[in-house]
Amino acid sequence: MVERASRTTQAQRAMRELLGGRQLIVVSNREPYAHRRGRRGLEVESPVGGLVAALDPVLQATGGVWVAWGSGEADFEVVDAHDCIRVPPEAPSYALRRVRLTSDEVEQYYRGYANQSLWPLFHLAVDKARFVRRNWTGYQTVNRHFADATLSMVSGDAVVWIHDYHLALCPLYLRQDRPDLFLSHFWHIPWPAWDVFRICPQSAELIEGLLANDLLGFHLRRHADNFLDCAEREMGAEVSREEGLVEYHGRYTRVQAFPISIDQDRWERTAESQECERWMARLRHRFRLADRSIGVGVDRLDYSKGIPERLRAIEVLFQQAPGVRGRFVFIQKSEPSRTRIKAYRDLQSHVEAEIERINAFYGTETWQPVVYIPRPLPPAGMAALYRMADVCLVTSLQDGMNLVAKEFIASQVDGRGVLVLSELAGAADEAPWSLTINPFDSESVAETLQRALRMPPAERRERMQHMRGHLQQHDIYHWMEQHFRAAARLLATRTATRSVFTDMEEIRQQVTARDHLAVLVDFDGTLAPISDPPDDANPPPLARAVLARLARRPRCLVAVISDRALDDLRQRVGLPGVTYVGSHGFEIAGPGWGSERRQAAEVRALIAACSQRLRSRLRDVQGATVEDRGLTTTVHHRMVQRDQVETIRQAVLEEVGRVPPGKLAIRRGKTMLEIRPAIDWDKGQAALWLLEHVLGKDWRRRCAVLYAGDDRTDEDAFLAFADDGVTVKVGASPYPTAARYAVSNVAELHALLEAIWAWVQPPVVPR
Ligand code: ADQ
Prior knowledge:
The chain is an alpha/beta fold. 43% of the residues lie in helices and 19% in strands. Helix 4 packs across helix 5 (170-177), helix 11 (307-320) crosses helix 15 and helix 21 packs across helix 22.
């Protein structure tokens, strides 16, 4: 349990830092605990799912509030006069505020607008989307109920974290009442392109609702980009795509991608448990699986998951490869969902009829081709399905992320299974080691299934190891930390930035307050003026001179921090006594201790070897180029013929595959593949590491810090020193900055450095 506890603790710590004494309120349609009347009296149910599993321990630790629809039949028998109940029942530690909805409201808001307008439209099932005025009115009313319930729970300064498409208007209603609240929203489903979104008659109202947030999160960059497009076209809002920022009516909303994940450690432990092994034996026996190969599909019965398309592909497999018949069983675990909506009932009957038909046509006395499990299984039963599967088939026609793919990876403790994953699910962006498919192309899905079933064990193991390595580092806690970090940065920007020249005395006091001083500066646009081409950038002689003097002063640490490669940086600044931090902090070298981050050094060697092998492998692919930038390598295929792109992808996968799992990640761009270190690292973390490395753990007690930069990537460092550093933004900021002070240009920064030198230079001792 040590590892798991530490991941939860990390998330709790990150949360507490973000909150800085503020109250946390989570708002979602679904509640974390529901009360029902069972055979043994009142029973409490907790929904299975990543979000509750992850947020519940955090709320337990911080003691906040969760606002949600009270959907359990006995929910309001147990609440207090304010519709609140302390949960979890066994150790009450936070308040669950239940929102009362009438059956008409549920019909209009939940079944109507959320699930028959927004859900189908946003999953490109345009033919299923219905826009009924009454439902829209109900949606507005219920969003107001949620906002009112939230406001009734706010005490003082609060951070409100709203979830999903049920509550798009809630932020606006909250903002109208409490302009000071910090509002963040996570959108769990895709955001479509403008041409699809504009079909919605209430498109402007939805965008306006969401632009009341300070932070808006999507799973993928492309969903965030679609939203930015819609905000610009629909509302005429000022949009910076590069910054992921919208300005509307004088307010800013940061729009960012945070790919959600699962509690990887919990799934893995469940899959390793004896209970799981008992379930595997039970399922094998119950469905007469013997030593047959097993395919698995797990979904809510939802048309976006492509279940009929999946069954079609399985049938094509039986036709294409008759040898597979009798030797392969596909288990479809489907949870009936939203059954009061006709489209869902129709889907359920269709799926059940198709399974029956396939079984009747292809099945034999001793072999049932498709096994259907509609009833719930406990977590160990689910993990057993995933663990025993040779293939997990995810065929989403559209999916924000798809957690099933990740649960399968986490449960594959034996590394035997192959993930066949729809390229239309968000999860595909993070799983280059899966076999990706287009679910609309049944023949090709069937071929891919054959390939998966024939895949040699060593290749299966290798692919799975890579996916597991990635998942370990990108679990649900990582998702939360990323989110909290972004929120903390935005909270820091709320303190107005002031010109350094109006506060020179305050700055003097701060930089001279400690024994040591650290002067940390960015390079391009800070120490050296921005230059085009970037190759011409050099610090002016006066800046170089003042930096040299500071670097010679005892107890003064001077570092230049940049995204440039270390050697390039060192050459351009060329001063002894200065520490150089290159590649956004991946490589660090100081005077006398010329070191670099250990992982970075290791990764650099791995990347160099990969580049070299790729160059030789892709020699004959016309138009392919391999650009080695030290700590990243980019393989460009813009000029390559379409039918050759797959060859390049395969080559990159194989070469990265030679590297131990978890070390390198592949990022897929439109016309390129980038190989990069699989570690999170930024200028802020690099600067903190440097101070600790040079001055020890208690550096904050002994050292004053000045950090200056002009760039978005410097914001991480501004945040790292937000509490007790002099943080200086160089140049006008197109976005809210976390820096406390500002200078207009590079020359003003140099003047500030001169002033600092005058304050801290050692006194001239008379002879
Ligand atoms: P969903 O559409 O519900 O989620 P998904 O991400 O696959 O889809 O999560 C489903 C969850 O329900 C998984 O934890 C899975 O184990 C469980 N589940 C599904 N079928 C089940 C069954 N038959 N029996 C038991 N459990 C079952 C929405 C978005 C997704 C996004 C998530 C999280 O549509 O794209 O990944 O939110 O943001």
